[in-house]
């Protein structure tokens, strides 16, 4: 049997996308395996959720390091020690440096709650409403040094409905996030495995 691609998920918060990835990876047909969840602080609720779902989860507390390079070195060491091949950002609220991103080129994914290239950055649901958009959605993309600008892997559209507030819109988008992120990870893992059948 071809080994599944060892994948880590980086979170900062509740971890609902992380949970969708872990659930999807339970299927024997899924080409990635979630081997590790890391957060940038101990308060991330997703850590407990990951452990409940049977996945090793650890905090690498950003505040314990002298700065971003030291934090990222700790992150990299942990990922390497776990033989991770793909990293999925799922509500990870830190911008990773260009050298880190370069090291993971083609193997670092992110989910963003807008139809990129529209609405890069934060508060996408509020901005979609403020701009009077009739359509909104989410995007899975490869991470590059420029924020929310890497190659797009998958997008899903949702309507903006009359009476929507940011919360209602976010919930509609989140449902789609949980659908397309596992699909995109599966596709990236499958092509990675096809290129390097024995692992990296
Ligand atoms: C999601 O909306 C994701 O698109 C964004 O941050 C949120 C994380 O939510 N990057 P969760 O922690 O996956 O529930």
Give a verbal description of the structure.
The protein is an alpha/beta fold and 200 residues long. It has one domain (5-199): Rossmann fold, CATH 3.40.50.170. Helices cover 37% and strands 22% of the residues. The protein has six helices and seven strands. Strands 3-2-1-4-5-6-7 form a seven-stranded mixed beta sheet, with helices on one face. Helix 1 (16-24) packs across helix 6 (166-195). The longest helix has 30 residues, at 166-195. The protein is globular, with a radius of gyration of 17 Å. The relative contact order is 0.17. The model has no long low-confidence stretch (mean pLDDT 97).
Low-pLDDT parts are none
Mean pLDDT: 97
Give the percentage of residues in beta strands.
15-25%
Binned, the helix content reads 25-40%
Q: Tell me, what is the CATH class? A: Alpha Beta
Which structural class do you get from the secondary structure elements? alpha/beta
Global Rg: 17 Å
Give the distinct bound molecules.
5-O-phosphono-beta-D-ribofuranosylamine
CATH topology: Rossmann fold
User: Using DSSP, what is the number of strands?
Assistant: 7
Shape type: globular
CATH architecture designation: 3-Layer(aba) Sandwich
N-to-C order of helices and strands: EHEHEHEHEHEEH
Number of helical stretches of at least 4 residues: 6
What summary fits the major beta sheet? 7 strands, mixed
Number of domain units: 1
Strand numbers in spatial order across the main sheet: 3-2-1-4-5-6-7
C-alpha termini separation: 16 Å
Within CATH, the superfamily carries the name: Formyl transferase, N-terminal domain
């Amino acid at each position: 049997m071809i080994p599944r691609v060892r994948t880590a998920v980086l979170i900062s918060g509740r971890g609902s996308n992380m949970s969708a990835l872990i659930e999807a990876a339970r299927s024997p047909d899924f080409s990635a395996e979630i081997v590790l969840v890391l957060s940038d602080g101990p308060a991330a609720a997703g850590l407990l959720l990951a452990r409940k779902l049977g996945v090793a989860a650890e905090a690498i507390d950003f505040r314990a390091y002298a700065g971003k390079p030291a934090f990222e070195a700790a992150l990299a060491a942990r990922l390497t020690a776990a033989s991770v091949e793909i990293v999925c950002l799922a509500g990870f609220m830190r911008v990773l440096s260009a050298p880190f991103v370069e090291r993971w080129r083609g193997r670092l994914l992110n989910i963003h709650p807008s139809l990129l290239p529209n609405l890069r950055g934060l508060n996408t649901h509020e901005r979609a409403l403020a701009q009077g958009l009739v359509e909104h959605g989410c995007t899975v993309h490869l991470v590059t040094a420029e924020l929310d600008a890497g190659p797009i892997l998958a997008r899903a559209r949702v309507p903006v409905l009359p009476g929507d507030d940011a919360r209602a819109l976010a919930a509609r988008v989140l449902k789609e996030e949980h659908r397309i992120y596992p699909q995109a990870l599966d596709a990236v893992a499958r092509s990675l495995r096809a290129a390097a059948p024995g692992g990296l």
